[in-house]
Target: Anaerobic ribonucleoside-triphosphate reductase-activating protein
Amino acid sequence: MKVRIGGLNEMSLIDAEGLIAYSIFIQGCHRRCEGCHNPSLQPFEGGEEMDTSEIIDEIWRNRDYYESVVFVGGEPLDQPESLKELLKFVNGTNMEAWLYTGYYSDEIPADIFELADVIVAGPYIEKYKTNGFPASANQVIIDNRGSKNETIGNI
Model:
């Protein structure tokens, strides 16, 4: 399955709150949030088209180094089928799946919601900028790692 990406960060320590992460920057975002951290990822025609199997193979080869795989954008939910395929792969490993989305939690499709271990949900709103995590105070962090879904914070 094809996915359009704006880049891969093969060793991130910031995208998953200190976990060693492989971050996938999904290309394209319909939201166009003012003050977006990644405006170059907004156009759908940008980036590079890759096969999800290439990304899966790369992560699998280096799986001993990663604690998490992070899906960020752009807007990962604008490519839902490839996102689901990649999330399902991560679920079959000992790594955590982190999803950053501009969608509110009740807008996230249930099949994607249940595949992500941690979700940072909500659009970036510049007037609520935090200079921390999450990036704006309206965003929530949803922790699906335990036995029940729990909102663990918003600022």
Remarks:
- The CA atoms of residues 117 and 144 lie 5 Å apart.
- The first strand starts at residue 2 and ends at 12.
- The chain is about 15% helix and 30% strand.
